[in-house]
Amino acid sequence: MKRKLFPTPDLDWYIRISDRRDTALRCPFATVDQCPRYYQSLHLLGHAGSTKIPEKEDARLTEKWEKSDLWPRTDEYCTSLSGPKDHRYPSSFSNFCPETLYDRFGYFVTHLSKYHDEEDQAALHRRLEKDNAPAGHPLWSWGGASPQHFTECYLYPILSRRGESSSSRPDKRELEQKFGILFSHGQIDRDFVQWTLEAQGLADYKIAALFIDIDDFKSLNSKYTESVVDRTILSEIQVLVRSWSLHRGAAYRFGGEELVVLMPNCSDRQAKGFGESLLKKISDHEFLVDGHSIKITASIGVALWPTHGTLSEDVIKAANEAEHRAKADGKNCVRIAG
Prior knowledge:
Blueprint: H1 11-21, H2 36-46, H3 55-66, E1 80-82, E2 92-94, H4 98-105, E3 109-113, H5 118-130, E4 144-147, H6 156-165, H7 185-198, E5 207-214, H8 217-224, H9 226-245, E6 250-255, E7 258-264, H10 268-284, E8 287-289, E9 292-294, E10 298-305, H11 312-328, E11 334-336
Parallel strand pairs: 10-11
Antiparallel strand pairs: 1-2, 2-3, 3-4, 5-7, 5-10, 6-7, 8-9
């Protein structure tokens, strides 16, 4: 008996499952310091064309997780790539964290494999046409795919139990509750204070704050409704910002459509370059809203500690004012606080 074609494992699919299971919209353990599978997946993706984890940080994380009882000891649980020896163009991705493959390919899957040959591809495409598979289905591009929600990961119940028993740990970082994608507004000050303490005695050490605001957001809400925009545009843009800032700092939901990225040990030139690359990532992305593919832009303001203030609220206020200037200067640009 032929197996039923699985639904497209996109962001809408993922969020619907999260809603049904009454969990966070995205995995609350999807950071390199909280989950070995997430770390191992990012590490291998760095060898397959994605941005690599900085060498020293990668070495620290490898040492940390290889000593952990959560590190996989059997092939059954190991994350792996198959293909050429340099892994630049893998033929398959196995046992990956679905959060990482979504950030890379746009599908919440734990396994992806290429077609065996052209005949295999043609046969699969005939099946997809017969089943009226949507254009975004992964099997149009891949020979095999295994959708997975984070609650189905073998590590999720283990990490959940440990999180419940250690909720008072000082290193536990708080995710914003509505979406569960970025860190919370309240976490900004805690991280900021920690980084300023680490900077004591270091010459020329700066912390950059990027204030990000989606352009023409009110008109998007009016056209598509707030609930639709939240489920599509606002969720996806948070994913983009998180993945873009993952190895360089931390991203937070400030409120509404406003996001903040903090980048420790970062100059104004570096922050401006980062902001411009992020704006290009956003403007190049196609957002699917009510069956329509649309493009959006954002504006970014940059301010630095201690140049523009000694407290987090002062630095972020300066970044917000710079973001207003970016809007006034035509939107879709970066401006640095004066």
